[in-house]
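ugh ok fine here u go
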Amino acid sequence: MRLSDASVVIRPRTSWEAMDLGVLLSQRHRRLLMTSWAIVTLPVFALLSLLLWDSPTLAVFIFWWLKPAFERLPLYILSKAMFGETPTLNQALRQWPRLLKPQLLASLTWRRLSLSRSFLMPVMQLEGLKGEAREQRLQVLLQRNAGAAKWLTIIGVHLEGALWIGLMVLFYLFLPQQVELDWSWQTLITAATQDWRWLEHLTNLFYALVLVVWEPVYVACGFSLYLNRRTVLEAWDIELAFRRLRQRLGSVAVTLILAALLLAPTAQTTWAAEPIISPDSPRLLDQPLTSQASRDSIKAILDQPPFKNKETVTRYRFGEDTPTAASPNSDRTPEWLTALLNLSTTLIEGVLWGAVVGAIGFLIWRYRDWLQAFVSRRPVLNSKIARPLPQQAFGLDLDRETLPADIAASAEQLWQTHPREALGLLYRALLSHLLHDFDMALKPADTEGQVLARIERLQQPALLAFSKNLTGHWQNMAYGHRLPPAPVQQQLCDGWRALFGQGGAR
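structure:
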């Protein structure tokens, strides 16, 4: 490599500044890095998912374990692009099989869980070191920037997890409301396991997509830390400064050489006229300043200001303090004063700890209601004000007095002439029963999905199945203006009688 061809400024940087440079370097070549990573990794992920369809967790674990093999390709691209030789996508993909050969087994076994993997990978791939030479090189490199490399891996792990969860949440938010209403955690758990394999593999795909974005950045940050360490060790910035100076003085050097050749005879004559002075000549031996005299002179200068300023410090010493040098004129602290100071220190410490404990106790007593409500698992028994039951929900009157005596019979009569009122009567009666008979805390702002979630907590399968069926037809009628067919109408009335009998009582 030629340092003069570097695409960035070569100079010593702090660890975090070097990682920031890696982020900028990955952004500059993000299209090539992300495309090459996706072409290499996504087919491997698809193959693992197909081979291990019944074990999606094992498939994503193997894919995660193979990350050091995938990271060699972006490192090759960055090392070439750093010095002005950016490869094309085709060239990079052709080089990847060759990059896998050196020390692949070590990278996937005992070196796999190294927190400094991104920082040390260039030693193997770019320098080609192994064995004892590699260990010696690592000892030199890890003297600095090792902590930053470990923090890079720790932050990367948390960032991968956050992005992965974010993609899953985003997928859930894009689900249609009707599909979301049909889902419930109890249904997901009780359903056949093989019916939901596609969902597990879909979440694994989200992780593979996260790596397409993040892994090139991770490799670039580790590579920039490695370059920064080599810049400090090998003084690359000084070398570049001398190279620029040599180029600047290249035209002047010829003139200086010619001038030196012209002045050489004169210089030789001058040098011949001067007597040669040897170390044994009397001029050097008969010097008035000897070695001892020079040491005394230096010592006398260092004993004077500003090199030495004498200062006398007086302070109290406790019994456990041991003076380094006892002065013969120093006054000794009385024992009674030492005991008094020790007692005062103990009392002050006790008062401070008592104040801390008292403050904690006061806060617990002051906010005891809040702690009982949010910390304790037991329900709060002494409720202050009983909230009145809501009389309306979804624009429907939930008062029992407004409901007919035989709800199912009334609904059957309304199906012939007013089917919308019949379906509304059944849904309004269901909400009224939930409010008065099951003491369900309904709110005027509740949605149909929230009502079904509360019914699920009652752990009554028959009531939950009927409520889901009735709610689905109610939504189709209220929002889609689609009435249920005649067999479903009779089925809803029969289901009502099976749950609540002929009348309105439960």
